[in-house]
Amino acid sequence: MIQGSNDVFENVMELAKRRGFIWPTSECYGAVAGFIDYGPLGAMMKRRVENIWRDFYVIQEGYYEIECPTIAQEAVFIASGHVRGFSDKMCQCPHCKEYLRADHVAEGGNIRNASIMKNEDLAAAISSCKCLACEAILGTVTVFSFNLMFSTTIGPGSQRIGYLRPETAQGMFVDFARLLRFYRDKLPFGAVQIGKSFRNEISPRQGMIRLREFTQAEAEIFVHPNEKNQHPSFKRYAEYPVPLLTYVRQQNCEDPLEIPMREAVDKGIIANEYVAYYVALTHEILVTIGIKPERLRFRQHLPDERAHYATDCWDAEVFSQRFGWVETVGIADRTDYDLNAHATQSGTPMTVFIQYDEPKKTQRCRIIPNMSVLGKQYRTKAKAIFAELETAIPTPEGADIVVDGEKIHIPASLFEVRNEVIDIRGEDIVPHVIEPSYGIDRMCYAVLEQAYDEDMADGETRTVMRLSPNVAPVQVAVFPLMTRDGLDIIADEITRTFHKRGILAEYDDSGAIGRRYRRQDEIGTPFAITVDYETKENNSVTLRDRDTMKQVRIPITKLPEIVGALVDGSITFTSLTSDKTL
Ligand code: GAP
Question: Which residues, judged by CB distance below 6 Å to any ligand atom, belong to the binding site of ligand 1?
């Protein structure tokens, strides 16, 4: 129950700043909107969230991680469509001169479909709306498109344009040929990347939700287009229920419905097993990092909201008390769009050779050129002409081929046509891509907001971050009751034993024990150990649970094993209270 300011966002951000989770960036020069610093505790918590994501995708799914530069050359983003179309509609308030997202202004004025309106129509529609900054009625404005990519130049001078990547995904697409070889030319396979992405957002005013530099964790899973309903591990999630807000339910203003993934695919609600599998896996990841299931839903993109190439798209939305439902993860079936685009732009084939179980017999007319005549006539070009004739289609007049951009007609008198039956061993196909794309900063904000709580302890209000033990920056605190009689030495030894086991333990001997508990509660440390005088008698300590504030006595020798299991979730604190072996 929260008693302070009733805006959780204010409370969380105040705590986050004060205790070293999140700081405004370069604050001494005046912070810049859209950029944040993760302080010591925030950086540790973020790393833990990323590592849980890695555990699911890299270790369990077997999709290896790659790391590409954050700057890429222009051609990459011409192919991906970002140079042409990665823009938001923008206008400037004529009164306060603030730049505004025109679709956000429209949303504030209850104007629908702003994203699909022409700029002039949108300008007319929002003229009666209020400025989001100064709240004056806008009046006449111009709406124009603003490309969100940060551009730069590569090397001295300005010969070579580069862009800071607006998503990590493109790295996996442009590395496709090498990835394919790494995975021994077999589908399906996947690659993932966690790293910074950059978008020059027009007016980022939502803390960690809309940043200009943020961390994405994306997986690109390459699948045979005819095998999207054959996910090899689908049974893992076949009976897993997920709250789905389908586009039909949105159109009918209905609430989400919990549906197991097998049923969602069989009823055609989710396009295929691959998309459904990653919807369920995303649900599991978000719950694992501490998102409450009742504040989580999966919203299907409306048909006019979906990218033209995507066949199905779902957003994992997390409910925020301040921001409402926030898109935190996007899961899309992107078909063969990206690979085709890069193949065309780069000239590098992005296909996989799929061998048939049995070779297929097929008839073909083969051209057998008259080599001596053609060789004399075309000399240096002859070799290229023979190669082209291999696949050319003969007509009674001859065959038309192109060599080095030059069209050449070879008369029928200069070759013989032979009909033959050949074995076709397989075919080249362009894989489809299933893409789950996670915003790590939004996940971290949701974790912080949902963990924030206040309750009563020892007659006073206690602020407690109920972080899941697997994301809490400090995993256990160790306190000597007194800094004398050797209690401090024992506490220090216990702390070091934790460190050797990779558990982040914090030793604290300053102030009254109650104050020390409060400090750790406020940063979400799930467990605290106190070394007291009984420790000297029987080598046991108290282990306190942050949420219930209950304590149990544990032998020192069992501490690393028990705290390790509590942190990774394999046991619960409640199970310890009834454990007779302790
Ligand atoms: N490759 C697909 C892609 O980038 P997206 O929906 O634009 O899709 C994926 O981004 C996720 O990245 C979002 O669901 C969100 O969590 C996060 N994200 C996008 N823009 C962001 C921003 N400006 N600030 C923080 N997170 C952002």
Answer: 167, 169, 199, 201, 210-211, 214, 216, 218, 327-330, 435, 437, 439, 441-442
